[in-house]
What does this fold into?
Amino acid sequence: MVSWGRMLVPVQLGARSYTIVVEAGGLAKLGDHLRPLGLGSKTALVTDPVIRRLYGDTVTDSLKSAGFSVAHVEIPEGEGAKTLAVAARCWDELLAARLDRSSTVLALGGGAVGDLAGFVSATYMRGMNFVQLPTTVLAQVDASIGGKTAVDHPRAKNLIGAFHQPRLVLVDPLVVRTLPEREFRSGLAEMVKHGIVLDLAYFEEMDAGVPRLLTRDPDTLERLIGGSCRLKAGVIERDPEEKSDLRFALNYGHTIGHALEAVTEYGRWTHGEAVSLGIVAEARLARRLGVASADVVAQQERVLTALGLPTRVGPIDVSAVVAAIGRDKKARDGRIPFVLAPAIGTFKLVYDVTADDVCAALAEVA
Ligand SMILES: NC(=O)c1ccc[n+]([C@@H]2O[C@H](COP(=O)([O-])OP(=O)(O)OC[C@H]3O[C@@H](n4cnc5c(N)ncnc54)[C@H](O)[C@@H]3O)[C@@H](O)[C@H]2O)c1
Ligand SMILES: [Zn+2]
It folds into this structure.
């Protein structure tokens, strides 16, 4: 699969199939990757000011030398971009640049840029070509893969959206070298998650690669980010629209993690930090329920600690966390599916978890 420093991960979804290209320095070769796709000549590059300054010229030059025109659409940094007002401004700019259904929207940025630009491309003229150029670890291994696009509703994140698969995901693992440290480490939590529920060998590779990962060694980034993309892509292929239990596996650490984020109003931890805490708490839960051994719990906690991710929650209103879990979007008929890991590389859905079990698990990680 790996050849000349380029990893190609095919995502087989019938007519909507596409490739995830993982390539160090790949952004400069974007034009070459787009040419075979038979896209129209017009593109719009959606990005935020920070990323535009860092990588905008590289992408623009590559697009232009491959014969594409480029309209630049700048959106605010971070979650604030995921609104209907920002989407409406993007639609206006696509129209002003005369983009049509054969044109392509490219999202250059983190998950927020990807979600917003994806939503814009899913809705403009009932859907146009979309390309993901993810620049955070989280976006590279998670948000850019799977075709979920969204804006936020004032009452809930990601409430308004559509499934819209990209034509290409181009992951340049070198760009994460400019991420702030906390942002970088947060993304690693999703990679650990993929290993825990899907693949023991990958988990062990992560474990062994921690020191080189933390210095952001290019080869290590390429190998481990690429490996994580492959794991997520495997899930998407088998369950593209979240219709089976499989996709729940990706929710590991998130049932408790999301609740922790909600009760602290998204202010205490980054998403990845909350996922790290969620993983530790859900691992404890699995041991309490007799699903996993203490050793399996310790393995997970050890890797997260080595990556500098939090494993203790500190003072928290446990009853508020339990109440927030009760409002989980993934609830089916009022029952909350907990993803648990009986051993590294496997998962199991458990519905009959009581509030007392959750409280006890949270107390263990207080
Ligand atoms: N669609 C999905 O399946 C999916 C999955 C997970 C998360 N998400 C969404 O992703 C969003 C979070 O994404 P995120 O964690 O990437 O954060 P983000 O998109 O908010 O970006 C974080 C910050 O990092 C900066 N940045 C991005 N790349 C950089 C780089 N290479 N160097 C320096 N700075 C850089 C950005 O300017 C921004 O300020 C949330 O809105 C979440 O809902 C979507
Ligand atoms: Zn997540």
Observations:
- The longest strand covers residues 156-163.
- The radius of gyration is 20 Å.
- The chain has a mean pLDDT of 96.
- The longest helix spans residues 218-238.
